[in-house]
Amino acid sequence: SPIVLVVTNFTNGKDGAPALLSMREFECILHELGHALHNLFSKVEYALNSCGCKELDFSEFPSILMQQWAYNREFLKACTSHYITGDTMPESIINALIESHNWGLASSLRYQVKLSALDMAWAELADVPEESVFEGEKNAAKKYSIARERFEVISHNFTHSFCGRYFAGYY
Asked: In angstroms, what CA-CA distances link 78 with 2, 37, 147, 167?
């Protein structure tokens, strides 16, 4: 029988109140529950064949699928309530959450494309470059025709690329 743990580090409640999750924390728990369900429903003879050892697109699919429920109207109605009154979340708040989530989707996609291009640019290097990280990012943006409204060094966020199994495949 599989044993699966989901360990979190969410914001604590204040003055004896329960911990009230932010939407980011709510998305995170759904994402991690997707990984947990993936492992719970796996039936493998060897741990090496378990969920975490599969191709990344397959490994992340259940967690990203679960994460999408965070902005599903029916799901929000069914699993949220006011912590004191027990009232369901008002339709106006649900609408605002969904609208605010959808509003930034194009910008989020654009940012993911930028990260993908940069991740691939780092993976394509055969040797340590002589240029600075800043110049490397600028050149990657040019190569993939990604407009940059401002320049910021973001490669330091790629710990998953430089010291993990995700290198040039995460995005």
From this structure: 28, 20, 41, 38
